[in-house]
Amino acid sequence: MQFRATQLDDSLVSFKDAVLRCLPPGGGLYVPASVTDMRQFFLYMDFNTSYPELVTTVTPGLLQGELNPFSASRVAESAFDFEPELKQLDDSLSVLTLYNGPTGVFKDFGIAFLAAVIEELIKNKGFAMILSAAKGDTGVSIAHAFYKRHGIISVILYPSGPIRGLDPGSFIQNGGNIIPIQIKGTFDDCQRLVAEAIHDRPFADRYGITSANAINVGRLLPQAFYYLYAFIKLKQHLKEDLIFSVPCGNFGNLIAGLYAWKFGIPLSGIIAAMNANNAFGDFIRGKEYSPHPLVTTNSPALDVSQPSNYKRLMAFYQEAPAVMRNMVYPEAVDDQATVAAMEKAWKKYNLILDPHGAVAYAAAERYAKARGDSYGHVVVLATGHPAKQADLVSEILGRELEIPERLRKLRHKTDPAALIDPQLDALQGAIASCV
Ligand SMILES: *Cc1c(COP(=O)(O)O)cnc(C)c1O
Fold first, then answer.
1. Which of 277, 312, 356 is the best mutation target for the ligand 1 pocket, counting ligand atoms within 8 Å of the beta carbon and taking the most?
2. Which residue in 28, 212, 239, 383 is deepest, having the highest Cβ count within 10 Å?
């Protein structure tokens, strides 16, 4: 499989190049350039297939010539000591739990695969510096995934404010390979610095700089694997159409679902579940995209007014406008409906959802209601661990939540290795003095 830039540009690059220099020189983002039919690799897998087995089988097929089955097996085994979990709730509804990783959000899946695959790609002949902007617990997920990886240094840029959850024992000054740097500025400043550093060719080449942010297609592609996983777990019970309901913020998860469809899972629709920040609904329905002002809601990971995957969605739209219009169903769920969905999931199924999963569940219910009987089987993506919003979830469900130890640790504050101005030369100086 090769990759192309979303910007008009004819050149194709390998997976390795797309991952190790994750921004195309002419602008835009990388997207798969071709459709790979993966059915021969997963249609005959059965219910008992483990997640690492699935990843080991599918990856060499997808990245033919770039990753052999032995490499793929090493990647899968070293990335995934956690798995998704599919729970069938009734004939027409399942939930795919994606919060079993180290930081309790689905993002752990893409980041863990990326870290393992980069180590494999540079093996014996290279080094890489992973420069990433972090918000929320993403920094912990990145630090966890890249810690002790051979030939790799992970630099994590934080905006102003407390930094939480990192293990100082993993920092470079303590013999580790993680460098947390605080930027006197916003998350946007951090993202801008990552892009500037990658586009400064001599500098990027000297250190082998790439990123673990969602700009890296090597983080997005493996998210398609858990859609395949849900399918192989469910297929023996499937009598009708398969639909996924996905809570959307930056739309990475939704795009990964569309890629999974391209790889050949018999998917008949994806519900794009948004909260009050739903400017993208109109876009999906064919209107010009115009961002709306940001609204704060009880599902904060979906509070995005300008999705960073906009260019990838546009590229998909241009390739397959009919698919986008007929297969992607936008739904907008407000705070009140989100709370009602959490209550309903608990009462009806004894299922505890966090607000993001609840947005997807509410959207799935609406989709079903609008279509009456026999609309198919909907899989709701539970993207976040309920204990991450324990106070809100406890209050709504009227019961205490247990908070796993690994999520408790995310609250500890840590000090950065450096505090710098939001300028590229300051960042370059900080990196040079740490390495
Ligand atoms: C990041 C996140 C989302 C949004 O995913 P996108 O791929 O950005 O659309 C949904 N739920 C949770 C819990 C998240 O952390």
1. 356
2. 212
Three-class DSSP category at 82: coil
Strands (E), 98-201: 128-133, 152-158, 163-164, 178-183
Output the CA torsion 366→371→375→380 (10° steps).
-10
Angle, alpha carbons 311-102-19 (nearest 5°): 35
- As a whole number, mean pLDDT of residues 314-318 equals 89
* Rounded distance between C-alpha atoms, residue 283 and residue 317, angstroms: 10
Q: Please give the distance, rounded to the nearest whole angstrom, from the Cα atom of residue 206 to the centre of ligand 1.
A: 33
The amino acid sitting at 54 is L
DSSP state for residue 271 in the 8-state scheme:
E
From the CA of 254, how far away is ligand 1's center (Å)? 10
Q: Pick 128-207+412-435's CATH classification: 3.40.630.30, 3.90.79.10, 3.40.50.1100, 2.30.22.10.
A: 3.40.50.1100
pTM of the model: 0.97
83 CB burial (10 A radius; 0-12, 13-18, 19+): middle
CATH of segment(s) 83-105+220-406: 3.40.50.1100
Residue 121 CB neighbours (<10 A): 22
Return the domain boundaries, the chain.
83-105+220-406, 128-207+412-435
Tens digit of each residue's pLDDT (9 = 90 or more) over 350-389: 999 999 999 999 999 999 999 887 779 999 999 999 999 9
3-state secondary structure of 273: strand
Report yes or no: 418 and 182 within 8 Å, Cβ to Cβ: yes
- For the CA of 251, the closest atom of ligand 1 is 9
| Residue having the nearest C-alpha atom to atom 7 of ligand 1 | 252
Give dist(CA 402, CA 421) in Å, integer.
Answer: 40
Residue 432 Cα to ligand 1 midpoint, Å, equals: 34
Q: What is the pLDDT of residue 301?
A: 96
Ligand 1 site residues, Cβ closer than 6 angstroms: 105, 107, 247-253, 301-302, 356, 383-384
